[in-house]
Amino acid sequence: MEPNLPLVFDGHNDTLLNLHLRDRGEGRSFFERSAVGHIDLPRAREGAFGGGFFACYAPNPEDDGWNEESALNATEDGYVVSDAPRLDPEYARSVADKLVEGLFRLQSQGSLRVVRSIDELEGCLREGVIAAILHFEGAENLGPDPGALGDLYQTGLRSLGFVWSRPNAYAYGVPFRFPASPDTGPGLTGAGKDLVRECNRLGVLVDLSHINERGFWDVAELSEAPLVATHSNAHSLCPASRNLTDRQLDAIRDSDGMVGVNFAVGFLREDGGESEDTPLETVVRHVDYLLERVGIDRVGFGSDFDGAKVPKGIGDVSGLPRLLAALRAAGYDEEALEKLAHGNWIRVLRATWRK
Ligand SMILES: [Zn+2]
């Protein structure tokens, strides 16, 4: 590893689901080095991974007939993924509960801690303990009663994406399409608006990655917290429906929020393609662009490790130093690298959480 590279605190990973599902993680252990997936403890240490948002995401169950591979249809210049059906909240909650349990089990060896406050997060970074934020990707994971948010807050939930790329009782997720606008449907429902207020009251971060554009603007109007997209890129450079338009980026800047740069090749590449032969410079280009648009204090990483194909040059979490080295080579100084690597996440979480 290069000397003097800052610890990376990251906006999004799907490691919990990868560990949980045998067909994804092949039964690997977080504590042993694996060639499967992107994050485990030995590789995290090698990559100076300080921690991040650990997503609890419930995939569509087999019996609803939808899966990411079969739903994908090529078009002349890209793709359209057919709309994912909404989940039964009881099912979603049962999956989320297993993933939450899985996250807390990762604390058993003392090398990872679930953090509930800025003090705890900073303590972990100081001590070299991986700091994990409990994040729900999809508010259907709360179960049928949105009042469960309060209990989950007590458990440790500190970040909530209202939707994955499908609809639920609160909002409409943006279906995966390329090239396409994120303006794909209606905004927040009444329950969604109530949920914004409740997240503000508790100090739970509202994650705007995956929400469609009208939902984004509804949150922008209602929320008192900085606007945050934990794992999304610049639509101007890669016109995937999952990326952020310049207008959305301006709103993020004006709210003093932030964007986590997603390493998923399909959200990085100009052609929206899925090739891992995507140069590191493509990531650097998104960082450059976002930074120009929203400012040096409002960009970080949101890797999507264990949930997406990433550029070969990164490979997995152990490749983070190569990305930082590429950014340094592109002219980012120590102060800028520190902000990108973790400083900005700490800033925005401090402004969002109650403690
Ligand atoms: Zn995601």
Total DSSP E strands:
12
Major β-sheet, in short? 6 strands, parallel
**Associated small molecules:** zinc ion
Helix content: 25-40%
Order of helices and strands: EHHHEEEHEHEHEEHEHEHEHHEHH
Oligomeric assembly? single chain
Q: What value does the average pLDDT take? A: 97
Global shape: globular
Radius of gyration: 18 Å
Low-confidence stretches: none
Distance between the amino and carboxyl termini: 34 Å
Strand content: 5-15%
Q: Which structural category do the helix and sheet elements fall into?
A: alpha/beta
Number of helices: 13
Topology (SSEs and partners):
Elements: E1 8-13, H1 15-20, H2 22-25, H3 41-46, E2 49-56, E3 72-75, E4 78-81, H4 89-105, E5 112-114, H5 118-127, E6 130-137, H6 148-155, E7 157-161, E8 177-178, H7 190-202, E9 205-207, H8 213-222, E10 228-229, H9 246-254, E11 258-261, H10 265-268, H11 280-294, E12 299-301, H12 320-329, H13 334-352
Parallel strand pairs: 1-2, 2-6, 5-6, 6-7, 7-9, 10-11, 11-12
Antiparallel strand pairs: 3-4, 4-8
This protein binds zinc ion (ZN).
Zinc ion (ZN) binds next to loops.
Write a compact overview of the structure shown.
The protein has helices at 15-20, 22-25, 41-46, 89-105, 118-127, 148-155, 190-202, 213-222, 246-254, 265-268, 280-294, 320-329, 334-352; strands at 8-13, 49-56, 72-75, 78-81, 112-114, 130-137, 157-161, 177-178, 205-207, 228-229, 258-261, 299-301.
Describe the structure.
- The chain is an alpha/beta fold and 355 residues long.
- 37% of the residues lie in helices and 15% in strands.
- It has helices spanning 15-20, 22-25, 41-46, 89-105, 118-127, 148-155, 190-202, 213-222, 246-254, 265-268, 280-294, 320-329, 334-352, and strands at residues 8-13, 49-56, 72-75, 78-81, 112-114, 130-137, 157-161, 177-178, 205-207, 228-229, 258-261, 299-301.
- Strands 1, 2, 5, 6, 7 and 9 form a 6-stranded parallel beta sheet that branches. Strands 3-4-8 form a 3-stranded antiparallel beta sheet, with no helix packed on it.
- Helix 5 (118-127) links the parallel strand 5 and strand 6 (130-137).
- It is globular, with a radius of gyration of 18 Å.
- Zinc ion binds next to loops.
